[in-house]
Structures are given as structure tokens and as C-alpha cells.
Amino acid sequence: MIVPLNSPGIRNRPGDPTDCVARMTGKKKSAQASVEAMYRVFTVPEAPESTLSRIDQNISGNLTGFLQEHIVAVERDLSEVEKYFADSAIPEKPIFVSEQAQFLLDKLVANSVHTASPSFIGHMTSALPYFMLPLSKIMIALNQNLVKTETSKAFTPMERQVLGMIHRLVYQQDGAYYRKWMHDPRHALGAMCSGGTIANLTALWVARNRAFPAEGSFRGLHQEGLFRALKYYGHEGIAILVSRRGHYSLRKAADVLGLGRDALIPIDTDDENRIQIDALRDKCLELQRQKVKIMAICGIAGTTETGNVDPLEAMSDVAREFGAHFHVDAAWGGPTLFSRQHSHLMRGIEKADSVTFDAHKQLYVPMGVGLVVFRDPTMASAVEHHAQYIIRKGSRDLGSTTLEGSRPGMAMLIHSGLKILAREGYEILINQGIEKARTFADMIREEPDFELVTEPELNILTYRYAPARVQQALAAASPEQAERINMSLNRVTKFIQKTQRERGKAFVSRTRLEPARYGHFPCIVFRVVLANPLTTKDILHDILEEQKELAGVPGLKDEMDILYQHTEAVLGGPVAKRA
């Protein structure tokens, strides 16, 4: 157990940088600002027995224990938490490190989300390898800025190496290729970003500029803007095509790039939540007739909601037919390429012009870092920017081709994961995640009162609580009857998910899908992501048991009675009595 930081004999031990400015005011010490104090804060390390060092040792020695002890399991209303952060005035006087550390433990840590918990299976956040914490300290201590070699030195070639390693994972070029291009100061194999959103934006930024290059009297879209580009090339508009399961970051990209959100055109999906190729090609032909430039076609390798993978090979053929940039958002599913057993699910990704990875997902790196790799090393030059004082032409750094300027050396953590876990380690993690999802799907199928809504293709699945007799009624119901039952099931699902989250033992998320089996009526479902290697079959069993229990709590009785009324109206039997 951690000793409270304000306990006698703990607070302001000798060696605490603030100790030197403590002044006795009666029996209470107070911190004061001074030139000496500011100097010491920047130069004097914490003593081994100081309060901050004790926290550090506790986290480093037993991170899981620290999180379990300090994160409160039962959810507290956010309006209550906001009260701890209500004062907008910056304090005039300093406080001791120990006071701030105790505040963070009591008010911030205690009310944070235990994303590393093996029963936290609702989102794309997992436990981290233990080595990420101490290695992160190296990165923070060095405080390198990857915008320029003058502020990063060795971090720049490391960043280029990481981009080369992921590029090789995707495009599988030989060693000679990477010896030529990886450290070429005039080219870039990709761009490091703060996450998948910026990676997708960067890819489409490149696509936009390449779609309207300099020609004749026109100096290029990047110089003259979208209006002049469309006018010069004789287009009536511009479009990006993606399945209806595309990530919302693509809408953001269309907005930021000045295309408008309507430029992102959703294409219908099949029963497995994959884009319909015929519908995609038909839409491309329609846009072509309307003189709309098809700037990019985006494939999804691991949809956020269901984990499905678009038919990437067929999409690449369509993109080539219409002269469009082919981008694959593999923020989630990209690391499946590590698995010899499952990499075939990514077939066609090597034909993409650009591919997004989110390292803080299945590369198991801390928030937030992502990257985009380009098939052609010359592509990044389409967005190149220079400034005489920092990002000059010919420099080896990547600041000239990244949207973000100042960037931390997060590539160091990706590099560490790729070296320490290696291909074989990531392969094990990917294989286990997919196998675990299939096991959980089997468990759901064996439970008569649960309905599996989407089969796991990778390691994401969806399901809902639906008693066996309700499922029987749905199978026989008219469209109107099925709609009433599903509306009731939606309220039941929402209640169970929210109540389970508030209890704090486990967490699954919820989303809304339009299953073909129910006439594409919007159905609220539980969504589970099984990437945490610490999640066990017993934990999954307990999650289902708790959900069954929640279906019988008094607070849900009225809604369950309504559900059974709709059910018996279809089956013609007496309304079921509930205990």
C-alpha cells in the first residue's frame, strides 16, 4: 500500500527541490518562488526517499498494483469530478511537489479509466509492455524535437528506420530498396504523426495535391488553391469514396482539406460490413459522368465498429481504373501482417498508395502516435514545406513533409517494441487476439439468451442480450413487429451496458449497427475488442454472467415486461412472467 504523501515523516524529505525554499510560518511550511528555487527545480534530481521518487518506485515496481489500488472501480459522475478542476485562476504562489502529487493521486488518478485492466474490453486500448514506462522516461528526459536534426540528431535516423520497417512490412521490398531510400534526404517513406487521424489527413493531403499538379500556367493546387485547380482541370467537384464503416477522421480530413464533408461519399457495405465493389464502381462511373474528380478511394483494414476488412485487392483495381489515389486505413488491422496465419486477410494492402498505422493500438505503444507510409518515396514531396531558419531543402529530417511541426521522439518507443517483441512476438499477440475473439463468439453462441450480431474477422465482435424466446419471435416477426422488439432490445442493451460500466467490474462498449437480417433497422449492440493479452476466458465468462444478472435487476423490469409483451404478440403465447 502506498503511504499518503502528506503523512508525517514523508512530506518534504531532505532532497525535495522545494525543501530549500520552505519557510516556517507557525507550524506549517509553505513554498515560495525564488530564483534559487527555479534553478533547483531544473537542475536538482529528487532524492531516493523523496515523495516523488516513492511514487516513481511504486509505479515502476508494480504498475498493475498501483493502478488497481488508486483507480476507483465504481464510476463517479463527471459533474462531480469537474468540481476538482473548477478554478480557472493560475495560482500566484507555488505549492510543494508533494501536495501536487497527492492531488493527482486523489483527484486525477482515482478518477481515471483503468484501460490496462483485462476486463476493460470495450475500446482499442490495452495493457502496455512493462518496458514502455522506463523507456518513455528516456524519451521525455532527452526532449528531442523531430522537426529538425538540429533538435533531434540520432532520433531522426531512428524515425526513418521505423518508417522503413513498417514500409517493408506492408510493401515487402528488398534490402537494396531500403538502403537506397530509407535515409535519402530528398525523399521520405512516410510520416510520423500523433495518431491515425493525422495519418489519414496526411495521406489525403498528399492525394489532393497530387491530383492537381502544376501544369502549364497552373502552379499546382498547393500554390493556387482548390478553386483554381478545379477550374483549370475542368472538374465540377472532387470526391473521396469510402465504405459506410469508414472512420470519422476521414470526414475531418475532407473538412480540413477544404473539400467539404459532402465530398466524402459513403458506399454501402455487404452483410459482413465490407464495401460493395459493384456499388463502388457504379458510384465512380456516376461521378465521372458528372465531371467530379475522384481524388481518393479509401479501404478499411479493420473497421472500428466490427473489425472487418474491405476487399482491398478489388478496391485497388477500381482505384487504378479511375486514376484515384488508393489509401488504406489500417490503423487497427495493419499489425495483422505480422501473423503468417492471418496476414492473408490484408491481401491487396501492398497495392495501396498509402497506409495508416496506429502504433498506440496493436503495436502496444503509449498514446499517441501513428504513422502513414507511402508506396512511392516521391509522394511526400507533394506536401513539402520549407523555412530558411529550420526546415531547409536537403535536410535529412522529416519536418518538411509532416503536418505537425514540433514532434516528440515517439518513434523510439515503436522502435523498442519492434526490437524487443519482434515479428514473432507481435505474431503471437495478433494470433491470440483473433483466437480469443473466436472463442468468445463460441461462448456467446452457446448462451441461449445472447445473440452474436457480427462474427469476428479480426479481434472485434458485437453481440447483445436477447432471450431465446425473443430471438424466436424475431425470426417469425413481421417488419413492424421486429422493429418494436428491436426498439425494446435497444433500450435493454443500453441499460445493461451503462450499468455494467458504472459498477466498474468490467467494461464493454456499445455501438449501433444496421443488420441485414432485421431489414437494416438500427440495433444497439455490445462491442468487444480483444487485444489485451491479459484477458482470459474466465474474465469473458464473468462478463456474460454479469450481463445476464443485470437483465434481471428491478430497474429494468418495466422494459423487460414490454419486451416480452412484444414477443408474445408474435408467438401468440401468454406474456412471460418474470421472477
TrEMBL record:
<dbReference type="GO" id="GO:0030170">
    <property type="term" value="F:pyridoxal phosphate binding"/>
</dbReference>
<protein>
    <submittedName>
        <fullName>Glutamate decarboxylase</fullName>
    </submittedName>
</protein>
<dbReference type="Pfam" id="PF00282">
    <property type="entry name" value="Pyridoxal_deC"/>
</dbReference>
<dbReference type="GO" id="GO:0005737">
    <property type="term" value="C:cytoplasm"/>
</dbReference>
<keyword id="KW-0210">Decarboxylase</keyword>
<dbReference type="InterPro" id="IPR015421">
    <property type="entry name" value="PyrdxlP-dep_Trfase_major"/>
</dbReference>
<dbReference type="InterPro" id="IPR022517">
    <property type="entry name" value="Asp_decarboxylase_pyridox"/>
</dbReference>
<dbReference type="InterPro" id="IPR015422">
    <property type="entry name" value="PyrdxlP-dep_Trfase_small"/>
</dbReference>
<dbReference type="InterPro" id="IPR015424">
    <property type="entry name" value="PyrdxlP-dep_Trfase"/>
</dbReference>
<dbReference type="GO" id="GO:0016831">
    <property type="term" value="F:carboxy-lyase activity"/>
</dbReference>
<comment type="similarity">
    <text>Belongs to the group II decarboxylase family.</text>
</comment>
<keyword id="KW-0456">Lyase</keyword>
<dbReference type="InterPro" id="IPR002129">
    <property type="entry name" value="PyrdxlP-dep_de-COase"/>
</dbReference>
<feature type="modified residue" description="N6-(pyridoxal phosphate)lysine">
    <location>
        <position position="361"/>
    </location>
</feature>
<keyword id="KW-0663">Pyridoxal phosphate</keyword>
<dbReference type="GO" id="GO:0019752">
    <property type="term" value="P:carboxylic acid metabolic process"/>
</dbReference>
